[in-house]
Each structure stands twice: as structure tokens, then as C-alpha cells.
Write a structure and sequence with these properties.
This protein is α/β, with parallel strands linked by helices. The chain has two domains: about 180 residues, Decaprenyl diphosphate synthase-like (Undecaprenyl pyrophosphate synthetase); about 40 residues, no CATH class. Helices cover about 45% and strands about 10% of the residues. The protein has a six-stranded parallel sheet, with helices on one face. The N and C termini lie far apart (about 40 Å).
Amino acid sequence: MAESLLNPVYRLYSNWLRRRLTPATLPKHIAVLADGNRRWARQNAPESPLVVGYQAGAAKLKQFVGWCQELGLNTLTLWVLSTDNLQRSAADELHPLLEVIANLVRNLAADPTLNVQVVGDLDLLPPAAAAGLRAATIPTTPPQLSGTQVNVAVAYGGRHELRDAVRELLAAEAAKGTTLAELAETLDADQIAAHLYTAGQPDPDLIIRTSGEQRLSGFLMWQSAHSEFYFCEALWPDFRYIDFLRALRSYAGRKRRYGR
């Protein structure tokens, strides 16, 4: 929180916001579309390769995880690479980005207070990159039952997730001898949810997207049915602690009805 050290007014305002948040009003699961890294690079380092934006974004993600831990938030999902990004990214841009993501995952996984899981269709990545991400999240010690759960969404797409969940469900039922006709008669939403990438975790209460974009782009399509959304104009590397507190204040002021 470098801004608080440099600006007393900023520090006073952030402390004022923080004091008005209570554990009862905070989300249990917060998800982030960390958008705007490339635009940040073009604006702030136009003579440098775009990877400087990804590096700045990764540093902000690590800082963001610390903010969430400070407030006792238990589950985080960070979307860092979509299936659409894979289709439009040139190889000379994708490989540096994957290195930044791998370093981020390794750094997070090295923290014993975090339980880090990569979610997405890693088979869409180059084999070496996929293997590296899988290896980075193999715990060397038993996971902390009380640790913060951090999902890093890589090669993630909401449609891909639903496709994979249905495929896994069909395979599991076929292994038990269930016919398609029988499954069609008994299938319910909980059975599909049990095969999502985030199975067993609470759905996100709050989803934040930066860079001024106001759409979900398929992020957590199933899980976000009752989520609250907060859209911020700041590019992700410029997302400040005070922006985070404002998002939480906005969430705390809403009355969630869950469709009722």
C-alpha cells in the first residue's frame, strides 16, 4: 500500500473505509477479472514489450491476495488467461505471458498459508507450460485446512468448464452402468456442479472486473448465478487498495435476494 505512505489523506480515507467493513458484510469468495494489463503497458511503457504489463499485473495479483488475507477472505479466484486470449495471442506474446503466469503460480504456491489450484483446460497450452503449472501446485506439505483457497484460472472459459463438467459426469455415470435414458430422468444441477473446476467451493459472492469493461466474458458462468458485480475503470496494474475497499463497501451495501 505505497499510496498510504505517500499521501496522508489517502491513508485516512482508506482507514475510514476499512473501519466500516465488518466480517459479516464481507464476501466469502471474491473473484477478479484482472483486465487491462496490455493497455497499461502501451500507456506506461510504450517502448517496452507487452510482457511488462503482464509482470505489473502479476505483481498486483500477489498484492491483491495479501489484501484479501488481511481481511480474512477465504476463497479467491483470479482469471489470468482465457481461452479467447489463447486464440488471439501471437506466439511471441503468449510464451512470455505463460512464463509470468507460471512464476506467479509458483510464488503463490510457495506461501504455506495459501492453497493454490490452477483451474482451466490446461491441455490447450503448450505441453511444457501445462506440465509446469501442474507441477507448481503439487503441495510438498499437506494443504492448510484453514488456509486461503486461491484459484488461478488459466486457459479458462466458462463454456469449456461446462463442457468438461458434463463430459466428466457422463463418464462417471457410464462407469457405474447408468444409461443415458436413466441419467436424463434423474440429472439435477448438483450433479453438474460436482464436476466443475471449483467443485466443493462456495460460489463467488463478488466478482470484480477492471479496465472499464462491463461484461463477464463467460467467467464462472455457472457459479455466478447469484454473484454481485463491481466494475472499476482502473487498469488492473493501477488497481489500488482504496479501489478494493470501495468494491467491498459497494458489496456490503447491497441486499442479496438470490432471486427471491
